[in-house]
Amino acid sequence: MPEQQTLGSWRGVSLDIAAWDGVAAEVDLSFACMFTRERDGGPRGGLAHLDHALSGMLLRARDEGVFQGTSMETLLISQPPASIAARAVMVIGMGEPSAWLPAVTAGAVATAVRAAMQLGVASAAFAPSLLDAGLAPGETAGAGPEMMKAVTRAIDAQASMATYGLVPTPSLRRWVFDVGAAGYAAAAEAFQATLAQLKAG
């Protein structure tokens, strides 16, 4: 069983972290991110695992221009193979890797939360796929706090829309940040610290 824990909650949504990838995430909707290219060769880690589970169709879709990985482009895989634990997978485009900033991943998180709620799912997991694209760990250090801020803002926005009577009560009850086993402890600490700051106002 992959290591996982609850970081806290926000407006009734459990915010968790798990040492799994987009293939192994046991949720209704699993999110992965994909750039227009990888920095050095093909994808690695969880993104390579996802492409393998899809029989190479993810890279093929990008190569053929069906899904290019441009910023905030989305690809919903509603009939994933049995090797993928989630009921559905959505891939979110991240644009050009050399232009990446933490704000890009924050935008992808917000896109994912909105999509999860629009699709009416109860649980979702998000894999940022940064190291999978060849970004170095030192470059991605600021991503965690921005991801947590983006999740809470997106949850707040959807809750506000519900109070206006324009959308149903948000369905989402569990949100999971996917991380690699090696960075699990540090990521959990960073997420929890940011969540505590947000709760303190």
Order of helices and strands: EEEHHEEHEHEH
- Estimate the helix proportion, in percent: 25-40%
Number of helices: 5
Main beta-sheet strand count, sense and barrel state: 7 strands, mixed
Which stretches are low in confidence, meaning pLDDT under 50 for 5 or more residues running? none
The total strand number stands at 7
What is the CA-CA span between the terminal residues? 35 Å
Principal-axes geometry comes out as globular
Gyration radius, rounded? 16 Å
Give an overview of the whole structure.
The protein has 201 residues and is α/β, with parallel strands linked by helices. It contains 5 helices and 7 strands, in the order E-E-E-H-H-E-E-H-E-H-E-H. The chain has a 7-stranded mixed beta sheet with strand order 1-2-7-6-3-5-4, covered by helices on one side. Helix 3 packs parallel to helix 4 (143-163) and helix 4 crosses helix 5 (184-200). The longest helix has 21 residues, at 143-163. It is globular. The model has no long low-confidence stretch (mean pLDDT 96).
